[in-house]
Write a structure and sequence with these properties.
mainly alpha; two-stranded antiparallel ribbon; 3% strand
Length: 578
Protein backbone atom coordinates (compact mmCIF):
# COMPACT_ATOMS: atom_id res chain seq x y z
CA UNK A 1 0.00 0.00 0.00
CA UNK A 2 1.35 3.40 -0.93
CA UNK A 3 1.34 6.16 1.63
CA UNK A 4 1.50 9.90 1.39
CA UNK A 5 3.69 11.80 3.83
CA UNK A 6 2.32 15.28 4.40
CA UNK A 7 2.59 18.13 6.84
CA UNK A 8 0.16 18.97 9.60
CA UNK A 9 -3.36 20.15 8.85
CA UNK A 10 -2.52 23.84 9.26
CA UNK A 11 -2.27 26.61 6.67
CA UNK A 12 1.01 28.38 6.04
CA UNK A 13 -0.76 31.75 6.33
CA UNK A 14 -3.61 31.96 8.87
CA UNK A 15 -6.68 32.92 6.83
CA UNK A 16 -10.34 31.96 7.08
CA UNK A 17 -10.89 28.92 4.86
CA UNK A 18 -13.67 30.57 2.85
CA UNK A 19 -11.59 33.67 2.18
CA UNK A 20 -8.56 31.57 1.20
CA UNK A 21 -10.60 29.56 -1.31
CA UNK A 22 -12.09 32.71 -2.80
CA UNK A 23 -8.68 34.37 -3.14
CA UNK A 24 -7.21 31.27 -4.78
CA UNK A 25 -9.97 30.86 -7.33
CA UNK A 26 -10.29 34.58 -8.07
CA UNK A 27 -6.52 35.01 -8.42
CA UNK A 28 -6.32 32.04 -10.79
CA UNK A 29 -9.16 33.39 -12.96
CA UNK A 30 -7.61 36.87 -13.14
CA UNK A 31 -4.15 35.48 -13.87
CA UNK A 32 -5.64 33.38 -16.67
CA UNK A 33 -7.47 36.38 -18.11
CA UNK A 34 -4.37 38.58 -17.92
CA UNK A 35 -2.53 36.33 -20.38
CA UNK A 36 -4.84 37.63 -23.12
CA UNK A 37 -3.53 41.17 -22.55
CA UNK A 38 -0.25 42.69 -23.74
CA UNK A 39 2.56 42.46 -21.16
CA UNK A 40 5.05 44.73 -22.91
CA UNK A 41 5.01 47.24 -25.75
CA UNK A 42 7.95 45.91 -27.81
CA UNK A 43 8.61 42.62 -29.56
CA UNK A 44 12.28 42.78 -28.53
CA UNK A 45 11.51 40.53 -25.57
CA UNK A 46 11.44 36.84 -26.64
CA UNK A 47 8.02 35.38 -27.33
CA UNK A 48 6.30 38.59 -28.52
CA UNK A 49 4.15 39.46 -25.50
CA UNK A 50 2.69 42.53 -27.24
CA UNK A 51 -0.39 40.87 -28.76
CA UNK A 52 -3.79 41.32 -27.11
CA UNK A 53 -6.12 38.35 -27.29
CA UNK A 54 -3.47 35.76 -28.14
CA UNK A 55 -1.06 34.53 -25.43
CA UNK A 56 2.50 33.84 -26.51
CA UNK A 57 5.81 32.72 -25.02
CA UNK A 58 5.84 32.89 -21.24
CA UNK A 59 2.20 33.96 -21.19
CA UNK A 60 1.28 30.41 -22.25
CA UNK A 61 3.06 29.05 -19.18
CA UNK A 62 1.21 31.44 -16.87
CA UNK A 63 -2.07 30.48 -18.56
CA UNK A 64 -1.32 26.78 -18.05
CA UNK A 65 -0.38 27.24 -14.40
CA UNK A 66 -3.42 29.43 -13.68
CA UNK A 67 -5.74 26.91 -15.34
CA UNK A 68 -4.34 24.01 -13.30
CA UNK A 69 -4.55 26.10 -10.12
CA UNK A 70 -8.20 26.88 -10.84
CA UNK A 71 -9.05 23.25 -11.62
CA UNK A 72 -7.48 21.97 -8.40
CA UNK A 73 -9.03 24.80 -6.39
CA UNK A 74 -12.46 23.82 -7.73
CA UNK A 75 -11.81 20.11 -7.13
CA UNK A 76 -11.19 20.95 -3.47
CA UNK A 77 -14.82 22.04 -3.15
CA UNK A 78 -15.96 18.46 -3.80
CA UNK A 79 -17.15 19.06 -7.35
CA UNK A 80 -18.43 15.77 -8.73
CA UNK A 81 -16.17 14.19 -11.35
CA UNK A 82 -12.94 15.94 -10.30
CA UNK A 83 -12.01 13.78 -7.33
CA UNK A 84 -9.67 11.64 -9.45
CA UNK A 85 -7.41 14.66 -9.89
CA UNK A 86 -6.59 14.71 -6.18
CA UNK A 87 -6.88 11.19 -4.74
CA UNK A 88 -4.75 12.17 -1.73
CA UNK A 89 -7.09 15.01 -0.82
CA UNK A 90 -5.91 18.17 0.86
CA UNK A 91 -4.65 21.44 -0.60
CA UNK A 92 -0.99 20.68 -1.21
CA UNK A 93 -1.47 20.29 -4.97
CA UNK A 94 -3.21 23.63 -5.42
CA UNK A 95 -0.50 25.29 -3.30
CA UNK A 96 2.26 24.06 -5.57
CA UNK A 97 0.40 24.95 -8.75
CA UNK A 98 -0.29 28.45 -7.41
CA UNK A 99 3.35 28.88 -6.39
CA UNK A 100 4.50 27.64 -9.80
CA UNK A 101 2.23 30.16 -11.53
CA UNK A 102 3.47 32.90 -9.22
CA UNK A 103 7.12 32.02 -9.85
CA UNK A 104 6.75 31.87 -13.63
CA UNK A 105 4.79 35.14 -13.80
CA UNK A 106 7.08 37.13 -11.54
CA UNK A 107 10.15 35.77 -13.32
CA UNK A 108 8.66 37.02 -16.59
CA UNK A 109 7.96 40.47 -15.16
CA UNK A 110 11.48 40.68 -13.75
CA UNK A 111 13.05 39.48 -17.02
CA UNK A 112 11.13 42.09 -19.04
CA UNK A 113 12.21 44.84 -16.64
CA UNK A 114 15.87 43.79 -16.64
CA UNK A 115 16.30 43.09 -20.35
CA UNK A 116 14.34 46.08 -21.64
CA UNK A 117 15.59 48.55 -19.03
CA UNK A 118 13.02 49.18 -16.32
CA UNK A 119 9.42 48.79 -15.18
CA UNK A 120 8.36 51.41 -17.73
CA UNK A 121 8.43 48.69 -20.37
CA UNK A 122 5.60 46.77 -18.69
CA UNK A 123 2.05 47.03 -19.99
CA UNK A 124 -1.02 46.86 -17.67
CA UNK A 125 -1.44 43.16 -18.49
CA UNK A 126 1.87 42.35 -16.80
CA UNK A 127 0.91 44.23 -13.63
CA UNK A 128 -2.46 42.45 -13.61
CA UNK A 129 -0.79 39.06 -14.02
CA UNK A 130 1.71 39.73 -11.23
CA UNK A 131 -0.99 40.90 -8.82
CA UNK A 132 -3.38 38.06 -9.69
CA UNK A 133 -0.72 35.35 -9.32
CA UNK A 134 0.30 36.84 -5.95
CA UNK A 135 -3.33 36.79 -4.75
CA UNK A 136 -3.72 33.16 -5.87
CA UNK A 137 -0.50 32.14 -4.11
CA UNK A 138 -1.46 33.87 -0.85
CA UNK A 139 -4.90 32.28 -0.97
CA UNK A 140 -3.44 28.82 -1.60
CA UNK A 141 -1.01 29.24 1.30
CA UNK A 142 -3.99 30.11 3.50
CA UNK A 143 -5.76 26.82 2.75
CA UNK A 144 -5.56 24.04 5.35
CA UNK A 145 -3.63 21.01 4.13
CA UNK A 146 -6.55 18.69 4.89
CA UNK A 147 -4.37 15.58 5.23
CA UNK A 148 -2.53 13.97 8.14
CA UNK A 149 1.06 12.79 8.21
CA UNK A 150 1.60 9.32 6.71
CA UNK A 151 -2.04 8.95 5.62
CA UNK A 152 -2.47 6.09 3.17
CA UNK A 153 -4.03 6.79 -0.19
CA UNK A 154 -7.64 5.58 -0.33
CA UNK A 155 -8.21 2.55 -2.55
CA UNK A 156 -8.80 3.41 -6.18
CA UNK A 157 -12.16 2.70 -7.79
CA UNK A 158 -11.93 -0.43 -9.97
CA UNK A 159 -11.73 0.39 -13.68
CA UNK A 160 -11.95 -1.84 -16.73
CA UNK A 161 -8.59 -2.87 -18.18
CA UNK A 162 -9.10 -0.81 -21.33
CA UNK A 163 -9.66 2.33 -19.23
CA UNK A 164 -6.49 1.71 -17.21
CA UNK A 165 -4.49 1.18 -20.40
CA UNK A 166 -5.97 4.37 -21.84
CA UNK A 167 -4.86 6.29 -18.74
CA UNK A 168 -1.31 4.93 -19.13
CA UNK A 169 -1.21 5.95 -22.80
CA UNK A 170 -2.58 9.40 -21.95
CA UNK A 171 0.04 9.81 -19.24
CA UNK A 172 2.89 9.00 -21.61
CA UNK A 173 1.35 11.28 -24.24
CA UNK A 174 1.26 14.15 -21.77
CA UNK A 175 4.84 13.45 -20.73
CA UNK A 176 5.96 13.43 -24.37
CA UNK A 177 4.24 16.78 -24.98
CA UNK A 178 5.88 18.40 -21.93
CA UNK A 179 9.32 17.04 -22.85
CA UNK A 180 8.95 18.08 -26.50
CA UNK A 181 7.92 21.58 -25.45
CA UNK A 182 11.02 21.88 -23.27
CA UNK A 183 13.41 20.77 -26.02
CA UNK A 184 11.71 23.09 -28.52
CA UNK A 185 12.22 26.23 -26.42
CA UNK A 186 14.71 28.44 -28.22
CA UNK A 187 14.91 31.32 -25.72
CA UNK A 188 16.61 30.88 -22.32
CA UNK A 189 13.93 33.02 -20.63
CA UNK A 190 11.21 30.69 -21.87
CA UNK A 191 13.14 27.62 -20.73
CA UNK A 192 13.68 29.03 -17.22
CA UNK A 193 9.95 29.76 -16.92
CA UNK A 194 9.22 26.27 -18.25
CA UNK A 195 11.49 24.69 -15.62
CA UNK A 196 9.88 26.68 -12.79
CA UNK A 197 6.39 25.54 -13.77
CA UNK A 198 7.44 21.93 -14.41
CA UNK A 199 9.20 21.57 -11.04
CA UNK A 200 6.23 22.90 -9.09
CA UNK A 201 3.84 20.96 -11.29
CA UNK A 202 5.60 17.66 -10.60
CA UNK A 203 5.58 18.40 -6.85
CA UNK A 204 1.87 19.15 -7.09
CA UNK A 205 1.11 15.86 -8.84
CA UNK A 206 3.17 13.97 -6.26
CA UNK A 207 1.30 15.58 -3.38
CA UNK A 208 -2.04 14.99 -5.11
CA UNK A 209 -1.27 11.28 -5.39
CA UNK A 210 -1.70 11.29 -9.17
CA UNK A 211 1.79 9.94 -9.84
CA UNK A 212 1.30 7.24 -7.20
CA UNK A 213 -1.92 6.16 -8.92
CA UNK A 214 -0.18 6.14 -12.31
CA UNK A 215 2.75 4.19 -10.89
CA UNK A 216 0.36 1.54 -9.56
CA UNK A 217 -1.25 1.22 -13.00
CA UNK A 218 2.10 0.92 -14.78
CA UNK A 219 3.19 -1.79 -12.34
CA UNK A 220 -0.06 -3.66 -13.03
CA UNK A 221 0.26 -3.38 -16.82
CA UNK A 222 4.03 -3.64 -17.18
CA UNK A 223 4.06 -4.84 -20.80
CA UNK A 224 1.68 -2.07 -21.87
CA UNK A 225 3.82 0.47 -20.01
CA UNK A 226 7.00 -0.63 -21.77
CA UNK A 227 5.25 -0.51 -25.13
CA UNK A 228 3.79 2.94 -24.46
CA UNK A 229 7.17 4.28 -23.30
CA UNK A 230 8.93 2.94 -26.38
CA UNK A 231 6.19 4.26 -28.70
CA UNK A 232 6.27 7.72 -27.09
CA UNK A 233 10.06 7.87 -27.49
CA UNK A 234 9.86 6.65 -31.11
CA UNK A 235 7.31 9.33 -31.98
CA UNK A 236 9.49 12.11 -30.56
CA UNK A 237 11.72 12.75 -33.63
CA UNK A 238 8.64 12.86 -35.86
CA UNK A 239 7.24 15.76 -33.82
CA UNK A 240 10.31 17.99 -34.27
CA UNK A 241 10.37 20.64 -36.99
CA UNK A 242 14.09 21.30 -36.43
CA UNK A 243 16.54 18.43 -36.84
CA UNK A 244 18.85 20.07 -34.27
CA UNK A 245 16.27 19.36 -31.56
CA UNK A 246 16.36 15.71 -32.62
CA UNK A 247 20.16 15.82 -32.26
CA UNK A 248 19.66 16.93 -28.66
CA UNK A 249 17.43 13.87 -28.20
CA UNK A 250 20.11 11.59 -29.71
CA UNK A 251 22.78 12.95 -27.37
CA UNK A 252 20.43 12.55 -24.41
CA UNK A 253 19.95 8.88 -25.29
CA UNK A 254 23.72 8.39 -25.62
CA UNK A 255 24.29 10.10 -22.28
CA UNK A 256 21.47 8.11 -20.64
CA UNK A 257 22.73 4.80 -22.01
CA UNK A 258 26.25 5.41 -20.69
CA UNK A 259 24.80 6.50 -17.32
CA UNK A 260 22.84 3.26 -17.16
CA UNK A 261 26.05 1.32 -17.80
CA UNK A 262 27.74 3.25 -14.98
CA UNK A 263 24.74 2.38 -12.81
CA UNK A 264 25.81 -1.27 -13.01
CA UNK A 265 29.17 -0.35 -11.49
CA UNK A 266 28.07 2.31 -9.00
CA UNK A 267 24.40 1.61 -8.39
CA UNK A 268 24.41 -2.18 -8.19
CA UNK A 269 27.97 -3.14 -7.25
CA UNK A 270 28.77 0.00 -5.24
CA UNK A 271 32.12 0.65 -6.97
CA UNK A 272 33.00 4.34 -7.24
CA UNK A 273 34.34 4.80 -10.80
CA UNK A 274 35.52 8.34 -11.63
CA UNK A 275 37.01 7.53 -15.03
CA UNK A 276 34.06 5.77 -16.63
CA UNK A 277 33.82 8.14 -19.60
CA UNK A 278 37.08 6.61 -20.87
CA UNK A 279 35.20 3.43 -21.81
CA UNK A 280 32.85 5.55 -23.92
CA UNK A 281 35.96 6.96 -25.59
CA UNK A 282 37.40 3.48 -26.21
CA UNK A 283 34.24 2.47 -28.06
CA UNK A 284 34.12 5.72 -30.03
CA UNK A 285 37.79 5.62 -31.05
CA UNK A 286 37.54 1.96 -32.02
CA UNK A 287 34.50 2.63 -34.20
CA UNK A 288 36.21 5.65 -35.78
CA UNK A 289 39.27 3.57 -36.67
CA UNK A 290 37.37 0.68 -38.30
CA UNK A 291 34.45 2.54 -39.94
CA UNK A 292 36.23 3.93 -42.99
CA UNK A 293 37.29 7.39 -41.79
CA UNK A 294 39.73 9.08 -44.16
CA UNK A 295 41.91 9.96 -41.15
CA UNK A 296 42.09 6.38 -39.87
CA UNK A 297 45.44 4.60 -40.10
CA UNK A 298 43.59 1.34 -40.75
CA UNK A 299 42.33 1.05 -44.30
CA UNK A 300 39.19 -0.88 -43.34
CA UNK A 301 35.46 -0.21 -43.23
CA UNK A 302 33.57 -2.65 -41.08
CA UNK A 303 29.80 -2.97 -41.34
CA UNK A 304 27.96 -1.43 -38.40
CA UNK A 305 27.33 -4.69 -36.56
CA UNK A 306 31.03 -5.56 -36.76
CA UNK A 307 32.03 -2.05 -35.61
CA UNK A 308 29.69 -2.36 -32.61
CA UNK A 309 31.13 -5.73 -31.65
CA UNK A 310 34.68 -4.42 -32.08
CA UNK A 311 34.00 -1.33 -29.96
CA UNK A 312 32.27 -3.38 -27.27
CA UNK A 313 35.10 -5.94 -27.25
CA UNK A 314 37.76 -3.24 -26.99
CA UNK A 315 35.95 -1.62 -24.05
CA UNK A 316 35.52 -5.04 -22.44
CA UNK A 317 39.24 -5.73 -22.71
CA UNK A 318 40.08 -2.34 -21.24
CA UNK A 319 37.58 -2.93 -18.44
CA UNK A 320 39.14 -6.27 -17.52
CA UNK A 321 42.71 -4.98 -17.85
CA UNK A 322 42.02 -1.98 -15.64
CA UNK A 323 39.70 -3.79 -13.25
CA UNK A 324 41.82 -6.88 -12.57
CA UNK A 325 44.62 -5.11 -10.69
CA UNK A 326 42.51 -2.35 -9.12
CA UNK A 327 39.28 -3.95 -7.90
CA UNK A 328 40.99 -5.33 -4.83
CA UNK A 329 40.97 -1.72 -3.64
CA UNK A 330 37.95 -0.17 -1.99
CA UNK A 331 36.34 3.21 -1.54
CA UNK A 332 38.47 6.30 -2.08
CA UNK A 333 41.50 4.31 -3.26
CA UNK A 334 39.49 2.70 -6.06
CA UNK A 335 38.06 6.10 -7.00
CA UNK A 336 41.55 7.63 -7.28
CA UNK A 337 42.80 4.77 -9.47
CA UNK A 338 39.82 4.97 -11.85
CA UNK A 339 40.19 8.76 -12.03
CA UNK A 340 43.82 8.23 -13.03
CA UNK A 341 42.79 5.74 -15.72
CA UNK A 342 40.38 8.26 -17.23
CA UNK A 343 43.07 10.92 -17.41
CA UNK A 344 45.66 8.47 -18.77
CA UNK A 345 43.28 7.51 -21.57
CA UNK A 346 42.65 11.13 -22.57
CA UNK A 347 46.36 12.01 -22.51
CA UNK A 348 47.33 8.85 -24.37
CA UNK A 349 44.84 9.55 -27.15
CA UNK A 350 46.33 13.02 -27.48
CA UNK A 351 49.89 11.69 -27.74
CA UNK A 352 49.35 8.96 -30.34
CA UNK A 353 50.05 11.47 -33.11
CA UNK A 354 53.22 10.17 -34.74
CA UNK A 355 55.42 12.59 -32.76
CA UNK A 356 54.99 11.79 -29.06
CA UNK A 357 53.97 8.24 -29.90
CA UNK A 358 52.89 6.04 -32.80
CA UNK A 359 50.47 7.51 -35.34
CA UNK A 360 47.13 5.97 -34.44
CA UNK A 361 44.65 8.59 -33.21
CA UNK A 362 45.95 11.74 -34.96
CA UNK A 363 46.68 13.26 -31.55
CA UNK A 364 44.68 16.25 -30.31
CA UNK A 365 43.13 16.73 -33.76
CA UNK A 366 41.27 13.47 -33.33
CA UNK A 367 39.73 11.35 -36.07
CA UNK A 368 37.44 13.41 -38.34
CA UNK A 369 35.31 12.52 -41.38
CA UNK A 370 33.64 9.49 -39.83
CA UNK A 371 31.11 8.40 -42.47
CA UNK A 372 27.40 8.03 -41.87
CA UNK A 373 26.11 4.60 -41.05
CA UNK A 374 24.73 2.43 -43.83
CA UNK A 375 22.74 -0.58 -42.60
CA UNK A 376 21.21 -2.91 -45.21
CA UNK A 377 21.37 -0.13 -47.78
CA UNK A 378 19.71 2.41 -45.46
CA UNK A 379 21.90 5.53 -45.33
CA UNK A 380 21.53 7.30 -41.98
CA UNK A 381 22.94 10.50 -43.46
CA UNK A 382 20.06 11.05 -45.89
CA UNK A 383 16.43 12.02 -45.49
CA UNK A 384 14.03 9.15 -46.14
CA UNK A 385 10.29 9.06 -46.79
CA UNK A 386 8.48 6.19 -45.09
CA UNK A 387 4.71 5.99 -45.40
CA UNK A 388 4.42 9.67 -46.24
CA UNK A 389 6.58 10.69 -43.26
CA UNK A 390 9.96 12.31 -43.74
CA UNK A 391 12.70 10.90 -41.54
CA UNK A 392 15.68 13.30 -41.42
CA UNK A 393 19.20 12.03 -40.66
CA UNK A 394 19.24 12.62 -36.91
CA UNK A 395 15.79 11.02 -36.59
CA UNK A 396 17.30 7.82 -38.00
CA UNK A 397 20.14 8.01 -35.49
CA UNK A 398 17.60 8.67 -32.72
CA UNK A 399 15.64 5.53 -33.56
CA UNK A 400 18.86 3.50 -33.74
CA UNK A 401 20.03 4.84 -30.39
CA UNK A 402 16.58 4.11 -28.95
CA UNK A 403 17.05 0.45 -29.87
CA UNK A 404 20.51 0.48 -28.27
CA UNK A 405 19.05 2.04 -25.11
CA UNK A 406 16.30 -0.60 -25.02
CA UNK A 407 18.97 -3.31 -25.32
CA UNK A 408 20.99 -1.81 -22.47
CA UNK A 409 17.84 -1.54 -20.32
CA UNK A 410 17.11 -5.23 -21.00
CA UNK A 411 20.66 -6.23 -20.08
CA UNK A 412 20.59 -4.12 -16.91
CA UNK A 413 17.20 -5.50 -15.85
CA UNK A 414 18.21 -9.13 -16.43
CA UNK A 415 21.59 -8.71 -14.77
CA UNK A 416 20.17 -6.84 -11.78
CA UNK A 417 17.59 -9.55 -11.09
CA UNK A 418 19.99 -12.44 -11.63
CA UNK A 419 22.05 -14.32 -9.06
CA UNK A 420 25.07 -12.15 -9.89
CA UNK A 421 22.94 -9.03 -9.56
CA UNK A 422 21.93 -10.01 -6.03
CA UNK A 423 25.59 -10.65 -5.26
CA UNK A 424 26.39 -7.12 -6.52
CA UNK A 425 23.79 -5.67 -4.19
CA UNK A 426 25.15 -7.70 -1.27
CA UNK A 427 28.67 -6.38 -1.94
CA UNK A 428 27.33 -2.85 -2.25
CA UNK A 429 25.62 -3.02 1.12
CA UNK A 430 28.46 -4.72 3.03
CA UNK A 431 31.32 -6.45 1.24
CA UNK A 432 32.68 -7.99 4.43
CA UNK A 433 29.33 -9.56 5.29
CA UNK A 434 28.89 -10.73 1.69
CA UNK A 435 32.30 -12.41 1.76
CA UNK A 436 31.41 -14.08 5.04
CA UNK A 437 28.26 -15.48 3.41
CA UNK A 438 30.32 -17.14 0.69
CA UNK A 439 30.33 -14.54 -2.10
CA UNK A 440 33.69 -14.28 -3.85
CA UNK A 441 33.85 -10.53 -4.21
CA UNK A 442 36.68 -10.06 -6.70
CA UNK A 443 35.28 -11.95 -9.74
CA UNK A 444 31.80 -10.61 -9.08
CA UNK A 445 33.09 -7.03 -9.03
CA UNK A 446 35.18 -7.68 -12.14
CA UNK A 447 32.08 -8.87 -14.00
CA UNK A 448 30.28 -5.65 -13.05
CA UNK A 449 33.23 -3.56 -14.17
CA UNK A 450 33.52 -5.43 -17.48
CA UNK A 451 29.77 -5.29 -18.18
CA UNK A 452 29.61 -1.56 -17.48
CA UNK A 453 32.60 -0.95 -19.77
CA UNK A 454 31.02 -3.01 -22.55
CA UNK A 455 27.74 -1.09 -22.42
CA UNK A 456 29.63 2.21 -22.60
CA UNK A 457 31.59 0.93 -25.59
CA UNK A 458 28.38 0.09 -27.46
CA UNK A 459 27.10 3.62 -26.93
CA UNK A 460 30.46 5.01 -28.02
CA UNK A 461 30.25 3.34 -31.42
CA UNK A 462 27.03 5.21 -32.19
CA UNK A 463 28.38 8.48 -30.73
CA UNK A 464 31.32 8.38 -33.16
CA UNK A 465 28.97 8.36 -36.16
CA UNK A 466 26.63 11.00 -34.70
CA UNK A 467 29.42 13.49 -33.94
CA UNK A 468 31.42 12.66 -37.12
CA UNK A 469 34.62 13.48 -35.19
CA UNK A 470 36.28 11.95 -32.14
CA UNK A 471 38.78 14.05 -30.15
CA UNK A 472 40.42 13.44 -26.74
CA UNK A 473 38.81 16.50 -25.13
CA UNK A 474 35.39 14.88 -25.41
CA UNK A 475 36.35 12.47 -22.63
CA UNK A 476 37.40 14.57 -19.65
CA UNK A 477 36.63 14.04 -15.99
CA UNK A 478 34.68 17.28 -15.54
CA UNK A 479 33.53 20.04 -17.84
CA UNK A 480 30.56 22.25 -18.68
CA UNK A 481 29.31 19.95 -21.45
CA UNK A 482 28.29 16.32 -20.81
CA UNK A 483 29.05 13.51 -21.16
CA UNK A 484 31.98 13.48 -18.77
CA UNK A 485 32.70 11.32 -15.76
CA UNK A 486 31.46 13.86 -13.21
CA UNK A 487 28.15 14.42 -15.00
CA UNK A 488 27.67 10.69 -15.55
CA UNK A 489 28.15 10.00 -11.85
CA UNK A 490 25.84 12.89 -10.99
CA UNK A 491 23.19 11.52 -13.37
CA UNK A 492 23.22 8.18 -11.55
CA UNK A 493 23.05 9.79 -8.10
CA UNK A 494 20.48 12.39 -9.12
CA UNK A 495 18.17 9.89 -10.80
CA UNK A 496 18.52 7.13 -8.22
CA UNK A 497 21.22 4.48 -7.87
CA UNK A 498 20.26 0.90 -8.65
CA UNK A 499 17.16 1.83 -10.69
CA UNK A 500 16.52 1.77 -14.43
CA UNK A 501 14.43 4.88 -14.89
CA UNK A 502 16.51 6.94 -12.44
CA UNK A 503 19.71 7.33 -14.52
CA UNK A 504 17.61 7.82 -17.66
CA UNK A 505 15.78 10.72 -16.00
CA UNK A 506 18.94 12.11 -14.39
CA UNK A 507 20.87 12.01 -17.66
CA UNK A 508 18.04 13.71 -19.53
CA UNK A 509 17.91 16.56 -17.02
CA UNK A 510 21.69 16.98 -16.80
CA UNK A 511 22.06 17.14 -20.57
CA UNK A 512 19.01 19.24 -21.42
CA UNK A 513 19.37 21.90 -18.73
CA UNK A 514 23.01 22.88 -19.50
CA UNK A 515 22.21 22.85 -23.23
CA UNK A 516 19.38 25.34 -22.68
CA UNK A 517 21.14 27.50 -20.09
CA UNK A 518 24.36 28.21 -21.96
CA UNK A 519 23.87 31.93 -21.32
CA UNK A 520 24.86 31.30 -17.69
CA UNK A 521 28.38 30.42 -18.91
CA UNK A 522 30.65 29.75 -15.91
CA UNK A 523 27.75 30.01 -13.45
CA UNK A 524 26.33 26.70 -14.71
CA UNK A 525 28.59 24.67 -12.43
CA UNK A 526 27.68 26.90 -9.47
CA UNK A 527 23.95 26.28 -9.88
CA UNK A 528 24.64 22.64 -10.62
CA UNK A 529 26.48 22.29 -7.31
CA UNK A 530 23.73 24.05 -5.39
CA UNK A 531 21.12 21.77 -6.95
CA UNK A 532 23.09 18.67 -5.90
CA UNK A 533 23.45 19.99 -2.34
CA UNK A 534 19.70 20.56 -2.09
CA UNK A 535 19.02 17.13 -3.54
CA UNK A 536 21.32 15.40 -1.10
CA UNK A 537 19.70 17.30 1.74
CA UNK A 538 16.05 16.68 0.92
CA UNK A 539 16.10 13.52 -1.23
CA UNK A 540 19.35 11.59 -0.76
CA UNK A 541 17.90 8.47 -2.44
CA UNK A 542 17.55 10.36 -5.75
CA UNK A 543 14.54 11.39 -7.77
CA UNK A 544 13.48 7.75 -8.19
CA UNK A 545 14.23 5.63 -5.15
CA UNK A 546 15.37 2.02 -5.34
CA UNK A 547 12.45 -0.16 -4.27
CA UNK A 548 14.84 -2.55 -2.60
CA UNK A 549 15.76 0.18 -0.13
CA UNK A 550 12.36 1.78 0.17
CA UNK A 551 10.86 1.12 3.61
CA UNK A 552 7.84 3.17 4.59
CA UNK A 553 6.18 3.59 7.97
CA UNK A 554 2.42 3.46 8.32
CA UNK A 555 0.48 5.11 11.10
CA UNK A 556 0.78 1.82 13.02
CA UNK A 557 4.54 2.19 13.07
CA UNK A 558 5.07 -1.09 11.17
CA UNK A 559 7.54 -1.42 8.37
CA UNK A 560 6.03 -1.85 4.92
CA UNK A 561 8.46 -4.32 3.32
CA UNK A 562 7.50 -5.35 -0.23
CA UNK A 563 7.24 -9.13 -0.36
CA UNK A 564 9.51 -10.66 -3.01
CA UNK A 565 9.35 -14.18 -4.34
CA UNK A 566 12.63 -15.91 -3.51
CA UNK A 567 14.15 -18.56 -5.77
CA UNK A 568 13.84 -22.18 -4.76
CA UNK A 569 16.24 -23.05 -2.00
CA UNK A 570 16.94 -19.46 -1.01
CA UNK A 571 16.72 -18.32 2.60
CA UNK A 572 14.83 -15.13 3.38
CA UNK A 573 12.35 -13.52 5.74
CA UNK A 574 8.67 -12.96 5.26
CA UNK A 575 6.90 -9.64 5.52
CA UNK A 576 5.44 -10.65 8.88
CA UNK A 577 8.89 -11.54 10.22
CA UNK A 578 10.22 -8.14 9.13
Amino acid sequence: MSTLKTTENTPVIPLPTGLARTLTAAGAVLALASTFLAWTWTADFPGDLTVTGYPGGLQVLTLTGALLTLIYAVSGHGVRGLGWLNPAGGSHAVRYFALGTFGTTWFTVAAISVELGGLVNLEPGAYAAAAASLVAALGALGLPSGASTGRALPPARPLPSWAEILIIVAGFGAGLHVFTYGIGTEDPELFVGYMILVVFGVLALIKAGVLARLSALTAKHRSVTLGAAFAAAAVFPLTQSNDQYTLVGVNILIFATVALGLNVVVGLAGLLDLGYVAFLGVGAYTAALVSGSTASVFDVQFPFWAAVLTGAAASLVFGVVIGAPTLRLRGDYLAIVTLGFGEIFRIAMGNLDGVSGPQITNGPNGIPNIPDLVVLGYDFGETHAVGGLEIPPFASYFLLMLLVTALVVLVFSRAGNSRIGRAWVAIREDETAATAMGINGFPVKLIAFALGATLAGVAGTVQAHVSYTVVPEQYVFAGPVPPNSAFLLAAVILGGMGTISGPLLGASLLYLIPAKLQFLADYQLLFFGLALILLMRYRPEGLIADRRKQLEFHETGQLDVPEQRLPEGAVGITKAEA
